[in-house]
Each structure stands twice: as structure tokens, then as C-alpha cells.
């Protein structure tokens, strides 16, 4: 529970598809209506293979914040972070992402946590501990940068990233599967590992 007004929880889609439907409505509100992105799909395969995090009002369970963790080796991707407009500026996004980081460290500790940050949110993610790993690239028609969260030191030897080169995947230059970005993430982690 965060304060007395809201609760934060994670859920799997097969356990609560109704809650996911509410989350998709907030996604449409934030990403389509406010940001002008093309219409989002209904519940998709990525939704079904993700762990979702939701912030709800305590009294009526209205969804005011959402994100999801999508496992796609060697990463766990923090995606679709959105907070309802009337709840912005109250640290809901920060709290939502902190919960996502906790879940990633607990359930996906051998995967590197990454996100694609719009230029206006780079500082926000840096305050959470993320580091920029790429130049700007276009994702869904918007410029982003790949950012990653530094894994816990005791997990470094077991990361799936060490066996991943990136060339075996389709990628957009600058995204987390770009071999240059994969190498930059590896080099940054290694530079801290030897200290």
C-alpha cells in the first residue's frame, strides 16, 4: 500500500483479465489520446506473457497507474509506464517503477532490466538508477533511448546477457537488441564488475 489513497499490486493476465482491460483503457488514454500514437491493440501476446503492475485508488479500485514487465531474453523490459493525468506529480510513476524494479530483481534476476525512454523521461529513469545505453532511435514513431538498470553485483556472473551477441535478432539501430547497444551494456556492467 502506498499512503492511504492507493494500492499497488502486480498481477498476471490469466488471473485477472478484467483488470488488464482497465489497464489497456489507461494505455489508450495516455499513449493514444495524449501522445497521439496509433491505436493500441487489444490484449495481445505480449500482455499475456508479461507481469503487470497497477496502481489503484483504494476506495473504488480505479486504475490510475500501470506498467508491465515483458520477458524477452536476455532482457526483462519495463514497458507501457503510464499514470493518469490527474495523478501526475504525486510520485506515482516513481513508486510504480520502484515496484517494477523490485519484481525484476526478485523474479527475473538473470535478465537485465531495460526500458525505452522518451527524451523527456530520461532524467526520471536516471533518478531510478537506469543508465543510457544508446543514441536516439524511433520506436512507434517517437524518439527513444535504450536505458538499463544495473543488476545486483551478486547476479552478474549468471546474467543471460553474457551469452547473447545481439546479431541473432532483428533489431532497430539503438534498440536493446542492436549489437552495439548490447556491447555497450556489457562493457558498462564489466567496468563496474572489476572495481
Structure, described:
With 195 residues, this protein is α+β, with helices and mostly antiparallel strands. It has two domains: 1-108, Gcn5-related N-acetyltransferase (GNAT) (Aminopeptidase, 3-Layer(aba) Sandwich); 110-195, no CATH class. Helix content is 31%, strand content 28%. It contains five helices and eight strands, in the order βααβββαβαβββα. It has helices at 17-34, 45-48, 92-107, 122-128, 179-193; strands at residues 6-12, 50-57, 63-72, 75-83, 112-118, 130-132, 137-139, 142-149. Strands 1, 2, 3, 4, 5, 6, 7 and 8 form an eight-stranded mixed sheet that branches. Helix 3 links the parallel strand 4 (75-83) and strand 5. The protein is globular. The N and C termini lie far apart (37 Å). The model has no long low-confidence stretch (mean pLDDT 87). One of its GO terms (biological process) is UDP-N-acetylglucosamine biosynthetic process. Residues 6-152 form the N-acetyltransferase domain. This is N-acetyltransferase domain-containing protein. Pfam families: Acetyltransf_10. One of its GO terms (molecular function) is acyltransferase activity, transferring groups other than amino-acyl groups.
Question: Main attributes?
Answer:
31% helix; 8-stranded mixed beta sheet; Aminopeptidase; 8 strands; globular; 195 residues; 5 helices; alpha+beta; 28% strand; 2 domains
CATH architecture of the largest domain: 3-Layer(aba) Sandwich
Strand content bin: 25-35%
Full CATH superfamily name of the largest domain: Gcn5-related N-acetyltransferase (GNAT)
Summed up, the domain count is 2
The percentage helix is 25-40%
Taking the alpha carbons of the first and last residues, their distance comes to 37 Å
What coarse outline follows from CA principal-axis ratios?
A: globular
Low-confidence stretches: none
Q: Quickly count the helices.
A: 5
- CATH fold category name of the largest domain: Aminopeptidase
Q: Taking Cα atoms only, what radius of gyration do you get, to the nearest Å?
A: 17 Å
N-to-C SSE string, H for helix and E for strand = EHHEEEHEHEEEH
Question: What is the total tally of β strands?
Answer: 8
Q: Just give the CATH class of the largest domain.
A: Alpha Beta
Organism: Wuchereria bancrofti
Protein name: N-acetyltransferase domain-containing protein
Domain N-acetyltransferase: 6-152
InterPro entries: Acyl_CoA_acyltransferase, GNAT_dom
Amino acid at each position: 500500500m502506498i499512503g492511504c489513497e492507493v494500492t499497488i499490486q502486480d498481477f498476471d493476465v490469466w488471473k485477472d483479465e478484467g483488470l488488464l482491460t482497465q489497464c489497456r483503457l489507461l494505455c489508450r488514454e495516455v499513449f493514444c489520446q495524449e501522445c497521439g500514437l496509433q491505436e493500441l491493440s487489444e490484449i495481445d501476446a505480449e500482455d499475456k506473457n508479461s507481469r503487470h503492475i497497477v496502481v489503484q485508488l483504494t476506495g473504488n479500485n480505479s486504475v490510475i497507474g500501470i506498467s508491465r514487465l515483458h520477458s524477452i531474453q536476455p532482457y526483462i523490459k519495463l514497458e507501457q509506464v503510464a499514470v493518469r493525468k490527474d495523478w501526475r506529480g504525486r510520485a506515482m510513476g516513481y513508486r510504480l517503477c520502484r515496484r517494477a524494479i523490485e519484481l525484476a530483481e526478485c523474479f527475473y534476476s538473470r535478465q537485465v532490466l531495460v526500458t525505452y525512454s522518451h527524451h523527456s523521461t530520461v532524467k526520471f529513469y536516471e533518478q531510478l538508477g537506469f543508465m543510457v545505453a544508446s543514441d536516439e532511435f524511433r520506436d512507434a514513431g517517437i524518439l527513444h533511448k535504450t536505458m538499463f538498470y544495473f543488476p545486483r553485483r551478486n547476479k552478474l556472473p549468471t546474467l543471460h546477457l553474457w551469452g547473447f551477441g545481439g546479431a541473432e535478432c532483428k533489431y532497430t539501430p539503438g534498440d536493446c537488441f542492436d549489437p552495439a547497444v548490447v556491447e555497450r551494456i556489457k562493457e558498462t556492467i564489466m567496468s563496474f564488475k572489476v572495481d
